[in-house]
Amino acid sequence: MDTTTSSRPALPATTGEGRRVHVISLGCPKNRVDSELMVGQLLSDDHVLVDDPAQAEIIVVNTCSFIQPATEESIDTVLEMAGYKHTGRCEKLVVTGCMVQRYGRSLEGELPEVDHFLGTGEEHRLLEVLRGRDGSGPKSHVDVPLYLPDELAPRVNSWSSCSAYLKISEGCDHRCAFCIIPTLRGRLRSRTIPSLVAEARQLAEQGVVELNLVSQDSTAYGKDLAGGGNIGALLQALSEVDGIEWLRLHYAYPHGLPAGLLEQLAGNPKVCRYLDIPLQHASGPVLKAMRRGVTREGQERILERIRRHVPEISVRTTFIVGFPGETDGDFEVLCDFVKQQRFDHVGVFPYHQEDGTPAADLPGQVPEDVKVARRDELMKIQRSISRKRMRSLVGTTARVLIEGVSEESELLLRGRTSTQAPDVDGQVYVANAPEGLRPGSFLDVRITKAADYDLVAEPVEPQS
Predict the structure, then answer these.
(1) Which of 46, 178, 202, 424 could be cross-linked to 359 through a Cys-Cys bond (beta carbons 3.0 to 4.6 Å apart)?
(2) What residues does 92 pair with on adjacent strands?
(3) 3-class SS shares of the chain: helix, strand, coil, % to 5
(4) For the segment 324-382, what is each residue's pLDDT rounded down to a tens digit?
(5) Which CATH architecture has domain 397-459?
(6) How far apart are CA 457 and CA 396, in angstroms?
(7) How buried is 407 (Cβ within 10 angstroms: 0-12 exposed, 13-18 middle, 19+ buried)?
(8) pLDDT-derived band of residue 133, with 50, 70 and 90 as boundaries?
(9) pLDDT number for residue 436
(10) Which part of the chain has CATH 2.40.50.140?
């Protein structure tokens, strides 16, 4: 389960003569994969993507509704796009994704400007509703999420020319007290290994060299497959795809880590020594109230097991502060845990009281200013840890995946090491790089400077 949301990126424009579409994807990388699948549908039907919504005849907004701020952003975006029915060329406005799944057909009355609503298991109906001419069909398609795309579903990778997200499963069988994801995404549904390998080959043929594996619970991958399958076997199969150099695992639920996963992290050169394992808290009472099914001591054993098997592992985690009933003492336990474990990457999020979750009705709701103060304090602790870690890397060498020219200066290239995931971790800025390096190239560098989260480097063998 991921607690991050992103800004409002529109998917990149294409050329052609078909109906013009503008697609906006809100929320997490998993949602972006859904948007890329919808774009694949549109392009297969001769539609054309445009950057400017004012020029679009069709506008699609793929929404997020994991927490209230994400819902508010989704509503604001929908209303903004609805304005182009009057000031632009928009003929149809389609709203899809988590917000639709959460609020269902009630949105028809709340957002009458919208022509069609598609829930999280209905995005494959996009062309069907766009082709409808007489308006006789239902305005909303919302049901229990069951659909699971495969490698035959057309998809356009919009993240990077050299890096892509690969959604390995959908849904979640856990029932964390704060989380509405099972309601929005349904039960665990894993894709088969052959299907994922086939999609990985397709992405590699497009120039992708890094795959970031995402799901709601990557640790549970394959548990629902009748023919078996597990995350270790999947990583091994994906590593055998020609052209794929880095595999990175996100959102591993923190218990029951399969031995095969640790074996792949330790021994497979294509599997990044990186694990994203959302822990959410460390205080026993808070973890129990969250229904996480693990204690602080259990989490410590898990982390010790990971680091024993993979000494060079880089660990990312996320925490929620201000959960109902969290006392000053509980927060101090969390701060102590972070100081003790010295994670490589940490995200901290204030708890949001979400209707439809068990935590919404718990006593002891924490004031907003206390939540924000606790977030800031915990991030201050982590910033100090990260600064020391970054400075310890000065003088060492690393392999960097080049992603393009830096936004700060065209004299610098930007890239990432295998211990930095896209978008959520820091970057490496490379000076004096050889000419002609394209996105997707790998370069051996020596770290020369360090900031709190980012690094500066030069090629190991500088060239004029």
Answers:
(1) 178
(2) 58
(3) 35, 20, 45
(4) 999 999 999 999 999 999 999 999 999 999 988 999 999 999 999 999 999 999 999 99
(5) Beta Barrel (2.40)
(6) 10
(7) exposed
(8) low
(9) 83
(10) 397-459
What is the model's pLDDT at position 7?
A: 42
Mean predicted confidence (pLDDT) in 450-464: 84
For residue 402, give the nearest of 431, 439, 432, 434 by alpha carbon. 439
CA distances 355 to 76, 167, 323, 364, 459, Å, are: 20, 27, 14, 16, 52
> Torsion-angle region of residue 423: left (phi > 0), alpha (psi -120 to 50) or beta?
left
Estimate the crossing angle of helix 259-267 against helix 231-239, to 10 degrees: 30
CA angle 74, 80, 85 (to 5 degrees): 125
- Give the residue range(s) of CATH 3.80.30.20 domains in the chain: 163-392
Degrees (nearest 5) of the Cα angle 217, 218, 223?
Answer: 90
C-alpha to C-alpha distance for 368 and 239, rounded to whole angstroms: 45
Backbone φ, ψ for residue 14 (5° rounding): -130, 180
User: Which single residue is written with the structure tokens 């971790």?
Assistant: 425
All CATH 3.40.50.12160 domain ranges in the chain, comma separated: 20-141
CATH number of 20-141: 3.40.50.12160
Fold exhibited by the domain 163-392: pyruvate-formate lyase- activating enzyme (3.80.30)
What is the rounded CA–CA span in Å between residue 157 and residue 204? 11
